[in-house]
UniProtKB/TrEMBL annotation:
Keyword Coiled coil in annotation: yes
Organism domain of life: Bacteria
Domain (Helicase ATP-binding): residue spans on this chain: 40-198
Protein name: ATP-dependent RNA helicase HelY
Length: 780
């Protein structure tokens, strides 16, 4: 039986078993929810906890209880977050509650009161402390891992698992996660590696969420009674898809869509502001703001405009006047005064922080944002709008997953302010309400590990535990835990897919002839058309091949079948299933001991390049242990080869940028000549040597150096202005600042790893940590 909060309190008081929980709960002006009370009980009982609950449900209260416990009884509590902006936010909250003397902040480039009882930090900082055997963790009692579902992140997820595996058993871990469908599996793994851990799952949103579709000018409910699709919506959609003169190629004739400014005005009339509109493109976010300004949209009154100006003035006082134009300051400030803003990674950090503050205060009413806003920043809205249900993932356009949809729409509904939240999907010719309904009602978004050993991780583990114990610890990873359990499930899925595939093939049989042959020709044309965009073959050759296949298709007996298009749709589904079956089969073949095998291969390379000798760590290995990042071995080898030894400070900044930067487009990089060119050629040669060794061992290769930021970073390190650097380039100020901060982080690592470079590194840091970069501080 689920107890109400009042019943739970009555029971707790009568038993008197959890006095610390009761005292903590009484400090709030509202009753805690049952899941929060249950989690606090578990903590007070000495257990670890995994709390999985929707966005805005109040998971962080459980983390704050751990903070309260050390304040009352001594020891330390570390509160970890995935990004610096979240660390800054939590630092401000806890400092206000407990006072400056008790709270510290560590984010790599910011260190405030690092020996405090409560320290907020990014996860990488704690991972590095564990590997360095830092004395700071000696009195550690609790670690809060906020947004722990980040361990699925392809690039950074391993850090969460490293901490959970290697943190002292004496430390209680509080893992806070968004709702995932395999919380019990994750909890089972935590129980294995961390000991007694209670799994607490809540699927109750504190503010109910209602789903809508904006069909032209009509705002329609997505669901009707019993969570079935709204029949009015499906009727309108069906009418829009009626064929014209029986030609299946004709596009559906839907209603004329509203402009972005008209959508905001409609939401305003319906009382649905403030709203966040998610647009999966930085340029389109900025374009949306410009469209609203051009339409004369104003969402603020004179008093609100005055308050907005005051916040802008306070937050922007350190900006250099000569940089204001290139930063787009005047247009940005004008939009803010009207209650409109963009929010994405291309903006100056100070701009993003200002937008967040004004939105939280209800002064900005309409924000156009990329999905990065859904990563835990405290910016809930009354309404969330999704323009599309697909996004560019760096390689192609992919559908938004159910988990991503839930994370994005989870921003809708402000606890204590709104009685409901609203998600609005914009209808388009590409939209299928059945798919949208499935997406909105799906509750299966499992947490999947992305853990894999790196060179740095492996050298640190060998240094700490020796090879055998290190290998065993890696076998304790969630990735291996899931791999071992998953093979049975994968085999079951293959059997299920094969059954459905065979049924589809049977359904697609044509009375005229072999429709599979005909479908294969259609598939071949589609593949050729797709390949033509990437292939180096001449377009004329591809067109000729397509023409020949089209000719064979027209001569095929099934081409005249009146039910041809229906057969085609069915066979396409069957072919998609076959591709999935092939992929699942390959996954089964690569599951067994995949983590340990990768570690063994990394060890071979570390031994080959002289970083270890059996279990003995060479001097170069101790250096590698202090270098974190995707190109760790490349940097270590470059130091070993003396690539950086004779460079000037500005040249060092330019060369080192190749190890952190990833270009957003395929344009050829502009590289300064002289010593920089020579150093980059040496780095390329070293990379080739590493790549060959990795290929020989069938090891996933390290990311290649990227020279796309060499010119800009060199100009900045040479004292040039931000305006002169960004003018005439596609580089955004947000990307520039973030890349420069990453260079600073890396240089600080190298300062510790390679003392012989300390003087030149200090000079380089002085040259680049200035102006807008210094002002950006820890807000990146």
């Amino acid at each position: 039986m689920t107890l109400t909060p009042s019943q739970n309190y009555a029971r707790t008081k009568s038993l008197g078993k959890f006095p610390k929980t009761r005292k903590f709960a009484e400090s709030f002006p509202f009753e805690l929810d049952p899941f929060q009370v249950e989690a606090c009980h578990a903590l007070e009982s000495g257990k670890g906890v995994l709390v999985a609950a929707p966005t805005g449900a109040g998971k962080t209260i459980v983390g704050e209880f751990a903070v309260d416990l050390v304040i009352g009884s001594g020891g330390k509590c570390f509160y970890t977050t995935p990004i610096k902006a979240l660390s800054n936010q939590k630092f401000a909250e806890l400092t206000e509650k407990y006072g400056e003397s008790k709270v510290g902040l560590l984010t790599g480039d910011t260190s405030i009161n690092s020996e405090a009882q409560i320290v907020i930090m990014t996860t990488e900082v704690l991972r590095n402390m564990i590997y360095a055997n830092s004395s700071t963790i000696n009195e550690l009692k609790y670690v809060v891992m906020d947004e722990v579902h980040y361990l699925a992140d392809k690039f950074r997820g391993a850090v969460w698992e490293e901490i959970l595996i290697h943190l002292s058993d004496a430390v209680q871990v509080i893992s806070l996660s968004a709702t995932v469908s395999n919380a019990e599996e994750f909890g089972e793994w935590l129980q294995t590696v961390r000991g007694d851990t209670e799994v607490i799952v809540s699927e109750i949103r504190p503010v109910p969420l209602y789903q809508h579709v904006l069909f032209g000018n009509r705002l329609l409910d997505l669901f009707g009674e019993n969570l079935k699709l709204n029949p009015e919506l499906t009727r309108l959609e069906r009418d829009s898809y009626r064929q014209v003169r029986g030609n299946w190629r004709d596009k559906p004739k839907g209603p004329k869509p509203l402009t972005r400014s008209e959508i905001v005005e409609k939401l305003d009339r319906e009382g649905l502001l403030p709203a966040i509109t998610f647009i999966f493109s930085r340029n389109n976010c900025d374009a949306a703001v410009r469209q609203c300004l051009a339409a004369g949209l104003r969402l603020t009154n004179s008093q609100e405009k005055t308050e907005i100006r005051s916040v802008i003035s306070r937050n922007m006082k350190n900006l250099a006047e000569e940089d204001l134009v290139v930063l787009g300051y005047y247009e940005w400030a004008d939009a803010l005064e009207r209650g409109i803003a963009a929010h994405h990674a291309g903006l100056l950090p100070a701009f993003k922080v200002t937008v967040e503050e004004l939105f939280q205060r209800g002064l900005v009413k309409a924000v156009f944002a990329t999905e990065t806003l859904a990563l835990g920043i405290n910016m809930p809205a009354r309404t969330v709008v999704l323009e599309k249900l697909s996004k560019w993932n760096g390689e192609g356009h992919v559908a938004v997953s159910p988990g991503e949809y839930t994370q994005l729409t989870g921003r809708a509904g402000r606890r204590g302010i709104d009685i409901e939240g609203n998600a609005v999907i914009l209808w388009s010719n590409d939209l299928d309400s059945t798919s949208v309904g499935g997406l909105a009602s799906t509750r299966t978004y499992p947490l999947k590990s992305s853990f894999k050993p790196t060179y740095n991780m492996s050298i640190n583990l060998i240094s700490q535990f020796g090879s055998e114990r290190a290998r065993t610890s890696l076998e304790s990873s969630l990735a291996q835990f899931q791999a071992d359990k998953a093979v049975v499930g994968l085999a079951k899925q293959i059997r299920k897919n094969e059954s459905v595939r065979d049924g589809l093939y049977s359904e697609a049989k044509c009375h005229l002839g072999n429709f599979m042959e005909y479908a294969q020709m259609r598939g071949d044309i589609k593949k050729l058309e797709t390949d033509s965009k990437r292939s180096k073959r001449k377009r004329a050759e591809i067109e000729e091949e397509i023409g020949a296949i089209r000719k064979r298709m027209k001569n095929h007996i099934c081409h005249t079948c009146p039910d041809r298009e229906n057969h085609s749709r069915i066979t396409e589904r069957a072919q998609r299933l076959q591709r999935e079956i092939d992929g699942l089969t390959e996954r089964i073949n690569t599951r067994t001991n995949v983590i340990a095998k990768r570690f063994d291969r990394i060890k071979v390379i570390l031994d080959k390049f002289g970083y270890i000798n059996n279990d003995a760590i060479a001097k170069s290995g101790k250096m590698l242990a202090k270098i974190y990042g995707e190109t760790d071995l490349l940097i270590a080898e470059s130091i070993q080869s003396g690539v950086f030894n004779n460079l000037s400070p500005a040249d060092l900044v330019s060369v080192i940028s190749s190890c952190i930067y990833e270009s957003r487009n395929e344009e050829a990089a502009k590289v300064p000549r002289g010593d920089i060119q020579i150093a980059l050629a040496a780095i390329s040669k070293i990379y080739s040597k590493i790549h060959d060794a990795e290929s020989d061992l069938n090891l996933e290769p390290m990311r290649a150096p990227d020279f796309g930021f060499c010119w800009a970073s060199h100009k900045w390190a040479s004292g040039q202005s931000l305006t002169s650097i960004l003018k005439g380039t596609d580089l955004t100020v947000g990307d520039f600042v973030r890349s420069m901060k990453q260079i600073i982080d890396l240089l600080r690592q190298l300062r510790s790893a390679a003392p012989e470079l300390q003087i030149i590194i200090d000079q380089a840091l002085t040259k680049i940590d200035r102006g807008v970069i210094a002002y950006a501080g820890a807000a990146v």
